[in-house]
Structures are given as structure tokens and as C-alpha cells.
């Protein structure tokens, strides 16, 4: 029997998506088999059910993909911008048409709630293609001189937290500026990129302009090392980003990196507490905290600490964790067993170092990878949970007394991707925002994205910007 | 040099410029600098054909680290100064240089083996370059930044901000125009710099320190080191409190080595490339050491009618 105000199950239909048992590589406009034998499986993180098999692309496969992209580059880059634009507009439209199917697919492969894929990922994916489509024939006016030239073949490596959105962030500006691409999706979430190949087919995109190679880090390494690429765009961990930067040293390959973060979400005592609590929840529990720009460090002014924490715990206790396909689910599954192990280990470190753990009282499903929303109090700046990126639903709470202290603590990080400020005072927002060393600052909101707005990090959160006019630079010879 | 005079001239001891002061190298080391010769330092002393000019400080790793501390200390004030103020100071540098033009013409002629007129052209171009960048300080944000038309009830603004402390390897050949062409864009936008002067021709750079010290430029904004480029650059490239590095003065092998070291904290790296000092400098040396910050604000609602009145 359900309690009053309990939700009945409201699952989105899985029948909206037709996943093939096995996928090849998308090279030169068609799905091909690997020259090697190795295959991987991708599973649904919420059930551990195998969704499909895919290829572990080897260096030879990557070479084929790069050659196809190189061959396609000549014609694609010579195409009038207006024609390139129309292909991208077509892609944007087809994504809109197929967005529910893609949302279900993404939820199955990634484990995030359908509410998020449907209302955040997919609309942003279509919008991103729509935005950059319009740039393709206006590059002369973008502030990079007359007729800025594309770089050539871009090697692009994307993470598993926003698989299709990260694909859009990479492919849309690259194609708009006249480059061709070889893209490697993450090993745990290859499916939406493989579905995107079908969208390219439907859009009539010339063959070889987009190539998708699947596989783990070895495939990525082969791509980065390939002498035939002119550009590497990577989104992922700071460790891998650093390795790529070393790998490209002394070459002419251009590099942009969007890496880790440990965003500070600063709550001043005059903030509207209820709104701030919603913002804190959105900041760290959106996509199970598997967000590089997550507000994973809460900096709360001492005088309102108790009130904020009480309210926060109350709110976290109402979050619904479970079937990601259920439209009422707030917290989905952790993307992989490996990631769950990493989160678990870091949380254990947090406890061992003396921080006080509190987890929301919720029942975890028996199969799949799950982690209850968790927060740490009594956290000092030296604690691992205050310094390392956890990339999971874990919030570290620190306190401050003065705005200067808040700024100093917020900036006390190797990262500099995002930050949040909660206060009613406009001048304080501007003063604090100007002192924060972070690429994106949200004032009285959090985790907002838009294709027109540049996104990217300071310090070890990487370099280069994605989105907006700024995002073109990464793919132009300027 | 004024050997023709009856009077014995007073030599100048060339010193480093760090934190607004003029220290010698903490190592106590110097190296011999000669006129227009490609050889310098003890190893190649006997190969040098030019005549003796000075004993320049041979900076150590410790000097490099001290310079980073000075540059970091200066960063808050300089990056927080108004763009107008930075422009005024850069313009003041041009004014001060104009007054010491003859000295720099002589030093550049000696350093690069140029005729007086050719050296004068270099110095004039360098002075004009300060003027060019002085004018950029309060315009670059308008050119690079702006409001983004967000699809939602938000207002956001993207603005460029300085990267932080930047290590600058000045070009080896162009001892003064090349030097100014790499320093000015870095500090115009609010970064602070640790500069390694041309290894064989460091004297114009060391004299520039004297000009900077009398131009209202806060101490530590520009720090100038002389010595072996490779020796000083290695600790700077690996330094975790340096945010960017301009490799203009590095050869291919050194550039690669430094770029690998710079990856440790993901420094912004400006790779060496052809430096056309006669061309319009463009903006790329500024943009290489600028970050973009985007700040979002909810626009709020004024009520169901969209208006509160």
C-alpha cells in the first residue's frame, strides 16, 4: 500500500529506442568492422543488463578513421559556409525530432534520470547544433580576421557524464568552422554517439566528415598520437588531460582541455535560504554529482550554517532515488562499477580523516550502481574530500565568516571551473564574482548552460572555451 | 663606450630587476656579455669576437623562484587596477623610454651589431609598441567579452581576465623590440611576468628594468632575469605557481622540454613561432594569457503580467 502523497511508478517507455545487439565503427560514412577482434560490452548502470556490444578500436582502426576524415576535409572545408550551415541545421532538427528516443537511450546507457536527459541534455544538444550552424557562414564576422581557416582533422575525446551533449559541444563548432572529426565516446557510454552516426546518415552529411571510433583509453591514446590529426579536444579528468598535454608538446597540434573541478558554492547569511538549498541540491546532485562543474564544496556563512544544513538535510531526504526511466526519479545510478568504487573509496577517506558523514535515508536498489546523496560536515580545507574531485553525489560543507575568507577558501583549489554565489546583495555578487578564479560563476542559480555562453576552466580545470563565439577559436587556425 | 674622452667613464653594473628592486643573482655568478657576438658565458668565452660590455648576472633557479614570488605578490594589485590605470602606466613607460632613447640605441646597436640608424629604428618601434598596448588595456574586454543571449530568464556576461603569473622567454635575436613585443601584451591585460632576457644580449632588457622602475609600474609586475635561458626556464616551466609560459625565446628542443614540464599544472603555453616584428602585432599574444569568465544572474520576474507597474 502506498502512503498518501507517494508517487506511483511512471516509467518512460523503453520501447522508444531500438538498440542493436552489436555495433561496428562509423568510418567514412558507414559502419565497418574492426581489423581486430576485441569487443566490449556496454551495460545499463541501473540494472547491469548488457545493452550492446561494441568495438574496441585499435590503432589501425583509428588510422582508417583519420584518413577518412582527412579525405573528407578537402571538400568539406571548401564547401560554402551556408551549405555547411544547412547540414548542421538538419542535424539539429533531426535531434529535436528524435529527442525522446535519444533521451531514453542516454538514460539507459548512462544511468541518469530521464527527467534530466529529456529536459536538459537533449534540448541543449539540439540547441548547440542550431547555434553553431548559424556561425558556419558568418565566420568572417566572428573577430578572428577575414576568412579564418579551419585546422583540419580534429581528434575529439568525450566523457560519459553527458555523452551526447559533450558530442554536440565537440562536433558542432568543429564542423561549422570546416573541420572534419574523429570522435571517441567514453567506453561506458558509446551508444548515443553511435546513434548520432545514424543522424548523420539521415542528414545526408558527406561521408568521412564525422567518424566515430569506440573503445577505452587505448583508442584515445591512438587518436591523440596519430600524426594525421591537427587538433585534440578532450573533456575528462585532469590526469588524462595532463598526459595529453605532455603528448602534444613539441607538435603543431592545437589543444583544448575541459577537465576537473571542485566548485565552491558560497552561501551568504542574507541569501534566500530555500532558494539557496534548491541551488545547492541542483549544484551537487544533478546527474548524481558526476559533473565537472558541480558545486561540490559548500561554503556557508557561519551564522546560517545550522539553518542551511537542517533545511538541506530535510530536502535531501525527499529526493527520489531509483529507476532512471521513471519520470519522477531525482537521483539515478552511478555510471559504472569503477566510478562507484572511486566514490566509495573517497567517502571512506573522508570518514577516516575525521569529517562527519551524513547520507540521505533512502533504499538502494539491489542491482546496479548506486550511491545515496551524502554530505560531509566538519570539513577542513586540508581534507581529501575538500580537495579532490569526487565526481559523485557527495557534498563537502565548509564555513566562513567574512566575504574575504569565502573568496580565499573558494580559490584554494588546483581547479577553477565553476563557483556559485548566494546573496541578496547585488554589489556583493559583483565583488565576489570578480575575485573568484573560475570560468563560470552562477549567482543565485547553478548549473545553467547555454550554447551562446562560453564554458571552461581556469588553472588545472583546463584551457579553451566551449560555447559562444569563443568556442569557434578552438577550431580555427588563429 | 667613450674611450676618446679624457675622462674615464663610469661603468654600470647591470643587475636583475625583481620585485621592483635591483638585486644581483643570489648565486653571485655573472657571465661576460660582449658586442654582437653569438657566444656568451664561460663555455664559449674564447669564441667571442666582440668586445667586453658587461658582466651580467647569471641567474639561478633560486632567482627564478624569487621572481615568481614577487610576480605573484604583485598580481592582485595589478590585475585589480583599472584598465585605464594600466594604460596610463604603459604609456608612461613609452614616455620614459623616449627620454632614454639614446642609451637604448647604443645598447641595441652593441647587442645586435646594428648601425646606429638601424638600432634607432628598433628602439622607436619598441616605444611605439608600448603605446599600442597602452591603448589596448581598456579595449580588449570590449572586443573579447560581451553579453550572451541566453535562452532563459538569465543575464550573463563573459569577460576576459588575466591568467596570472606568466613566464616569458624573450626572443634571442631581437634584444629589445622582441623583448617589448612579448612583455607588453602580457602585462597590458593584468598578468604579471617573469622575463628571461635574450641570453647573449641581455643588457637592453636589464636597462628596461630601470625604465619600468620609474614608470609607476608596481614592483613585481615585471621581473627581469638574465642568464642561461635553459637553466632559468626549466624551474619556471615546472613551477606550480606559474600559470602560463611564452616560449618565444626557446629553440625547438627546449620548447618541447618546457612544454612537457608546463603540463604538470596545465599552464597556458604559447609555442614559439615566427615573430614578425614589423607586422601589426594583432591580439593573439594578449589572448594567449587571458581566461574567459562567464557570470550568470537570474533576471527575475516582475509578476505575472511581466510588469510590476
Automatic annotation (TrEMBL), chain A:
Pfam families: Aldedh
Record carries keyword Metal-binding: no
Keywords: Oxidoreductase
Limits of the Aldehyde dehydrogenase domain: 31-477
InterPro entries: Ald_DH/histidinol_DH (IPR016161), Ald_DH_C (IPR016163), Ald_DH_CS_CYS (IPR016160), Ald_DH_N (IPR016162), Aldehyde_DH_dom (IPR015590)
Entries under PROSITE patterns matching the protein: ALDEHYDE_DEHYDR_CYS (PS00070)
Record protein name field: Aldehyde dehydrogenase family protein
Organism: Streptomyces albipurpureus
UniProtKB/TrEMBL annotation, chain B:
Domain Aldehyde dehydrogenase span(s) in chain numbering: 45-269
Pfam families the UniProt entry points to: Aldedh
Coiled coil (UniProt feature): none
Keywords linked to the UniProt accession: Oxidoreductase
Domain of life: Bacteria
InterPro entries cross-referenced by the UniProt entry: Ald_DH/histidinol_DH, Ald_DH_N, Aldehyde_DH_dom
Protein name: Aldehyde dehydrogenase family protein
